[in-house]
Amino acid sequence: MGHQEHEIIRLVSRAQRDQQAADHFIQQYMGFIRSETVKFTHTAPENGHEDELSIAMLAFYESILSYQRGKGPFLPYAARNIKNRLIDHYRREKRHMGVLSLHAPDGEEEARALLDTLPDQTDHWEGYALKEASRQEIREFGQRLEALGLTFGDVADNCPRQERTFAVCRRVLDYARKNPRLLRRLEESGRLPMNELAQGAGAEKKTLERHRKYLVALLLAFTNGYEIIRGHLRQMGSAKGGRGA
Hints:
The protein is mainly alpha-helical and 245 residues long.
């Protein structure tokens, strides 16, 4: 292992223990994150792909948290996670919109975009509107988190790390959705009704307290139709599995 890789692993290890170090590491490697996003979208993020860049940043942060030495060099590991997250994003778009994004990989080994294999029959105005709606959703959700003193990084760091804990959070969500007044209380007060959620979902209150930030984001995502955010939050737990609840 070369000196540069040793230095990267040292920075990753520090970032796993220190949020400020993690933020600095992400900023230091924004060029890498942007490059991996461009490889996937085949265009600059400014050309209607700011949401993909945001997803790539979250994937990079998740890679920091889940990385272990046995997983090989860090940057290739992070690149794979970024690509997988972006693929997941396009698959969610397909399910939600009923169409396959023309920028999604076509499954070939060379990973050509479908846009490169089809005649130009796209409704460009409709595509622009959908992308703008996606960017607006991420921007608005981030502002709502900020109003509660949270960031996307806080949520990623606080998400469940075991499947059984993830299942508990899912039960809490299901109970809250069946009782919309609880979601309204979260919107109005910015606080989780812990006692009611724990009792209604048959969960231990201390488990909910341990994952409060993640639960706030999860329930908040179901208060105003945040489809992209919902799908991403559902998958964040699996990226960090196996390290204890």
